[in-house]
Specification:
Keywords: Oxidoreductase
Mean pLDDT: 93
CATH class: Alpha Beta
CATH topology: Rossmann fold
Order of helices and strands: EHEHEHEHEHEEHEHE
Low-confidence stretches: none
Radius of gyration: 17 Å
Number of helices: 7
Number of strands: 9
Protein name: Ketoreductase domain-containing protein
Number of domains: 1
Strand content: 15-25%
GO molecular function: oxidoreductase activity, acting on the CH-OH group of donors, NAD or NADP as acceptor
Organism: Pseudonocardia ammonioxydans
Largest sheet: 7 strands, parallel
Strand order of the largest sheet: 3-2-1-4-5-6-9
Family: Belongs to the short-chain dehydrogenases/reductases (SDR) family.
Helix content: 40-55%
Structural class: alpha/beta
Shape: globular
Length: 249
């Protein structure tokens, strides 16, 4: 797989880490498919990418928790561009709740659907297509919650742990031409950070050895590495971008 003018699909692409990833791929001349639940936001960002970078871009509304939406996204990309070279499974959600017994079945299922089920279906569809063509790269955006779970986000942590396992399984399934890896961020400054509590901000200062939150660009840097030619011998791997948080006692 060449590194120029690839077709790149990014879920959760209209905001946060996904948005910065879309901009970074477009800046490198790649064709970018922006996918998220809000179709209008995706279309707006796609137009922005084309205007600023001159690259082809497409916005597609896709609720990754729905199997049919995942299939429709892949079908649309094939219809428009004929292939998928890079998939970034970035879509995620972690709703607030009270005690663990207050977690409803609906909330639990929704969290697993968005964070894990969609990545499985898109990874399988795109991995199969890539393996049958000239290869490709898949990056799953996980979280340190997968290895440092806490009761405030336990369904999310369980889903992300599943995503880490999914990475290894997909890497083995579609080797050798398709590389599948994980980026595992710690707390990252995006629009979600506006809702962090003072307690959480203080915890970051004490629990993260780097002493600060990360920036979206730092996560995107790892994504670009894993989808680029310098990572040609890297598959089934997990790269932490967490300021050392996952190893803190």
């Amino acid at each position: 797989m060449g590194d120029d003018h690839r077709v790149v699909v990014v879920t959760g692409g209209s905001r946060g880490i996904g948005r910065e990833a879309c901009r970074a791929f477009a800046a490198r001349g790649d064709t970018v498919v922006v996918a998220s639940r809000k179709a209008e936001a995706c279309t707006a960002l796609a137009a922005e990418l084309t205007a600023e970078f001159g690259t082809r871009a497409l916005g597609v509304g896709c609720h990754v928790g729905r199997w049919s939406d995942c299939d429709a996204l892949v079908d649309r990309v094939l219809e428009e561009f004929g292939r998928v070279d890079v998939l970034v499974n970035n879509a995620g959600m972690s709703p607030l709740y009270g005690s663990l017994t207050e977690v409803t079945e609906e909330l639990f299922d929704k969290v697993l659907a968005v964070n894990l089920r969609g990545a499985f279906r898109l990874g399988a569809r795109c991995g199969e297509l890539m393996a049958a063509a000239s290869g490709g790269a898949i990056v799953n955006v996980s979280s340190v919650a997968a290895v440092v779970p806490n009761p405030r986000e336990l369904p999310y942590a369980a889903a992300k742990a599943g995503l880490n396992a999914l990475t290894v399984g997909l890497a083995r399934a579609y080797a050798p031409s398709v590389r599948v890896n994980t980026v595992m961020p710690g707390p990252i400054r995006t629009d979600i950070a506006d809702h962090w509590t003072d307690e959480f901000r203080e915890a970051v200062r004490t629990d993260v050895p780097a002493g600060r939150v990360g920036e979206a660009a730092e996560v995107v840097g790892a994504i670009l590495y894993l989808t680029g030619p310098d990572a040609g011998y890297t598959t089934g791997a997990t790269i932490k971008v967490d300021g050392g948080m996952a190893w803190h006692p």
